[in-house]
Amino acid sequence: MSAEQPKPNSQDRNSAPAASQMWGGRFARGPAAIMEKINASIGFDKRLADQDIAGSKAHAAMLARQGIITQADADAIRDGLDRVKEEIDSGAFTFKVELEDIHMNVEARLAELIGEPAKRLHTGRSRNDQVATDFKLWVRDALDRADQGLKALQAALIDLAEKHTDTVMPGFTHLQAAQPVSFGHHLLAYVEMFGRDRGRLRDARARLNECPLGSAALAGTPYPIDRFMTAEALGFDRPTANSLDAVSDRDFALEYLAAASICGMHLSRFAEEIVLWCSAQFRFIRLTDAFTTGSSIMPQKKNPDAAELVRAKAGRVIGSLNSLLVAMKGLPLAYSKDMQEDKEPVFEADDTLALCIAAMEGMVRDMQPNVPALREATDRGFLNATDLADWLVRELNIPFREAHHITGRAVKAAEDKRVGLTALTLEELQAIEPRITESVFPALSIEASLDSRRSFGGASPVRVREAVAAARERFL
Ligand code: ARG
């Protein structure tokens, strides 16, 4: 039977299903069909196949080295597991729901292929430490995948920022035009956010990297196993220190989901900006046909669907974190079957995050900033008001609070005239503050305003050019 579509009733109704070969010693008959259905995880945990096989190979090699099984058995197990892997990779493997999960599917097929030695593989381990090990290996790869994806996205952002260090645009607070910034500076803000996301992934990886294998069911094992050997073989820094904790810990999955959720939130914020920027109201960027769709009724439409979907899909990742937190929060030590529900949220988050990161990189590479529209937008909303206040402080030694007040009156005067600050005459400005001179006007140009913000981390093109180089150095 295929694991994708388990039949509601997998056994002939008239004959009692057989007890499990794996654990059915004290069971007279097999599970009810609905029990089998709720219990089986093979439909999703088949994604752990590679990790399960790697874990079993490391375990078998260790058992032989420690004299717990013979080298001949370990060799047979290793070769058999390679054949199982080939079958899985080629699609020839038949996953069986009645074998519950990936661990028992692999072991049962191994037994079919090599017989007796396969039955010695499960010495000194349990599915509890086995699944914790497999899942850690999987999450470790997921952390590395997300890191690589974000690095590529950062590269796309840095490339675009480099072309637009001098492109001026309005910076916003409260989505109200605030002060001019460089478009490159705006993009580099996201480079920082994704850089912190990568830092969180790295932190999670470092904490994850202890090997649960050999913790067995919950208490360790009487066999003289070498947990340091298996830990090293699987690329872990060391074995976990407490067997109870090792089989019941899912912090590593939660940390991955938390880091992924924060990253999803960042991707969503950027997606939201792309949606705004593409609108006729902003016209800040254009996306080509490659990243837009049309409307079936409104011929003028070019919709930024990919950005909208990234914005929505972040919710799935955040939902996955929530699912697992709720699943874990009531569990006593050690393993409980609830923990089988840890995998789907992580798989879902990984699929979603990879797709969203790739779509975002595609959009950044596709995006064409509308330089004239960005510049023109800085003419609305008195973006140089702070510059007038700063000029009053600098040139006339007026205290900033007072300068702020004088500038407010100038903005009001310009608003009444329906013009920008630079379109006020000197006489009009002097009616508000008599000491203002002609030399105020150059300081009020948008370009001067942008150029003046030269503090470290500021929006001035001089700083942004340095920031582009520094970002390449730090992140790529
Ligand atoms: N499929 C199980 C899981 O994913 C494997 C561990 C089962 N352990 C057990 N004691 N039933 O959690």
Give the SSE map.
Blueprint: H1 33-39, H2 42-45, H3 49-65, H4 71-90, H5 102-114, H6 127-163, E1 168-173, E2 176-182, H7 183-208, E3 210-211, H8 227-233, E4 238-239, H9 243-248, H10 251-278, E5 285-286, H11 305-328, H12 343-366, E6 368-369, H13 371-377, H14 385-396, H15 400-417, H16 426-432, H17 440-443, H18 446-452, H19 461-475
Parallel strand pairs: 3-4
Antiparallel strand pairs: 1-2, 5-6
Helix pairs in contact: 3-4, 3-6, 3-8, 4-5, 6-7, 6-10, 6-12, 6-19, 7-10, 7-19, 10-11, 10-12, 11-12, 14-15
* Strand coverage percent: under 5%
User: How many separate domains?
Assistant: 3
Secondary structure tally, helices = 19
Computed over alpha carbons, the radius of gyration is: 31 Å
- Tell me the CATH architecture of the largest domain: Up-down Bundle
CATH fold-level topology of the largest domain: Fumarase C, Chain A, domain 2
Major sheet: order of its strands?
A: 1-2
Calculate the terminal CA-CA distance, rounded to whole Å. 47 Å
